[in-house]
Design a protein that fits this description.
alpha+beta, 434 Repressor (Amino-terminal Domain), Jelly Rolls, 6-stranded antiparallel beta sheet, 4-stranded antiparallel beta sheet, elongated
C-alpha cells in the first residue's frame, strides 16, 4: 500500500474529511487529494504533520505493507532502555516486547529495583494500561497516588502526568501497554 493510500485509509477510518485534514496541517485540499491518490510526493517534514494530525507515529505511514502480520520477539531479542543509571543504585530498565511500525500499541516491562522510580512524571497522547507483575509500586497519576501490588491493574488516560515508584526493599516490575506507541 502506498503512503498516499495509507493516509487516505487512516483518514477515512478516523472519520476525518479530506478538507478537515488539509486544514489541520495547512495543505490545500487539492494538494492532499493528489498525495492520497499518488499524483505527487510528500516531504518527510510534511508527512510528520500528517501523522500528527492522524494521531499516529510517522513511521506507520512509511511501513511496508508486505511485512508479516506477526512479530515474534524472543526474550533475548528484546530492546532494552536503561534509565537513571546511577552508581549508587541499580538502573531502571524498560524492555520493549514489540516495537516498530506494525502495531498501534507499545507493550513494555519496566523493572524497578528497590527505592527507584520511573523518573519525572510524563504525559503523552493516548491510553495506558499497567499490570503489576511482581512487587509493589506506587503509581502517581496527576495529584493522586495508588498503591498497587502483584496482580493489580490500572488503566488511564496517558495525557495526565504519571510515573511509578518502588518504595520497598524488593524488586518490582510492571507490564505497561501504551496506545498509540510513543517510542
Amino acid at each position: 500500500m502506498s503512503i498516499g493510500s495509507k493516509i487516505k485509509t487512516m483518514r477515512c477510518e478516523k472519520g476525518i474529511t479530506l478538507r478537515d485534514l488539509a486544514r489541520r496541517i495547512g495543505f490545500s485540499p487539492a494538494f492532499l487529494s493528489r498525495v492520497e491518490n499518488d499524483k505527487t510526493s510528500i516531504t518527510l517534514r510534511d508527512l510528520r504533520k500528517v501523522a500528527l494530525a492522524l494521531g499516529v507515529p510517522a513511521v506507520v505511514l512509511l511501513e511496508d505493507e508486505l511485512c508479516s502480520a506477526v512479530m515474534l520477539v524472543r526474550a533475548a531479542q528484546r530492546k532494552v532502555l536503561i534509565h537513571h543509571v546511577d552508581k549508587s543504585k541499580n538502573p531502571v530498565t524498560q524492555e520493549f516486547l514489540l516495537w516498530g511500525t506494525r502495531f498501534r500499541m507499545e507493550p513494555a516491562i519496566i523493572r524497578l529495583p528497590p527505592h527507584t522510580s520511573s523518573g519525572e512524571p510524563s504525559s503523552h497522547p493516548g491510553d495506558e494500561f499497567t499490570f503489576v507483575l511482581e512487587g509493589r509500586v506506587v503509581f502517581h497519576y496527576g495529584d493522586s497516588d495508588y498503591e498497587l501490588a502483584k496482580g493489580d491493574t490500572i488503566g488511564y488516560l496517558a495525557s495526565i502526568s504519571h510515573s511509578w515508584e518502588n518504595k520497598s526493599e524488593e524488586d518490582a516490575a510492571v507490564l505497561v501497554a501504551t496506545s498509540p506507541a510513543t517510542y
